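User: Hey, quick favor. My workstation is busy. Could you predict this chain's structure for me?
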Amino acid sequence: MYNSPMDWLSGSKQGQAKKLIAQLADMTKRDQSTRELIKMGDDAVLPLINALQTHDLNLILIYQHILARIPSASPHLIKTLGTAHPIVRGRAVEVFSISKDKSAIPALLEAMKGEFFTVRSRAALALSAIGDVTIIPALFPLLKDNDDEVRIAACVAIGKFREPSTFDEITNVLLDDLKIEVRQAAAKVLGETKHPAAIPFLMEALRDSFWWYEKEQSAQVLLTAIEGMGLAVVEPLIEALADREVTVRKYAAMVLGNLRDVRAIEELGMAVYDLHHEVSQAAAEALAKFGAPAVSLLSEALRHPEATVREHAVIGLAKILDARIVPLLIEMLHDPDRVVKKQAILSLVELKDPRADAPLREIVNDRADRELSMLVKQLLG
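Assistant: No problem, here it is.
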């Protein structure tokens, strides 16, 4: 029963809003229903907030965007942050990431102190979307939150401001957090700032042994962040080629190869002779990315007394599209080391250059080394 005509009218409008919300699932009616809900304004807000309980993620996003376009929705959403089910609270918070309504800042700051990690993390992201730099210090405590997701969200939120004054805090996470996923988030955030002031912090992380014992695909996030700093990071990486730690030298060579700055060619040429085979190979493959300018450096390495160096030079040369490569690799078919010789065979077969056909056939007919003979025969079919 309604206590007054106004109650009846309000109930009738909310009933109409519910029908329009139901029609949002129909692609043919979605645009029209969206316009009518926005036009309804305040009468559509509570039904839309209640609809956030759905399990359909696409519909949730539609409801959130409609709420963000209704100016009177903010007070209702703010009230929801303190009273609704945690799932609805989190989804209500996300509306402010879309609307960027500054009136929600006090409520979002309070939401970051709540007991539900999804609400804390989404509140941090909403505050960063609003973009008021004065709230940055309030985000710092979340970097030490007990929940991984919250710490990651805090890194992302702080990173969006691209403030050099925050780099120390993010670097603490990069160096000290116990979870690789959180450290990766910190690395990515620093890289995305593109700010030269972030370079020393990223290079410090490169020298952190935590990353060395992770799978290379995990460390790749850090390497991508460093690479993303562009040419400004070339000199620090060249210096890192002389680092005492093997992994640092290896990773430095890999990133320098991707950057392809000519300042690094000579230093990478020296790194091919590194005593550690992983660094030597990384340097050879990095040089290959420079193309023709690297041919002379790698061809010099073919004459090195250490077989591993010659092998890596062969690997690097085989990756360069240059007419000079095939004759050099054919010459290596006579290398005294079987591993080097085998690598030259594999490289020439992969290149499929007709100049290598006769030399490879000679190996097939060579009975002195039946294993290599069989290998070439098998590869050539």
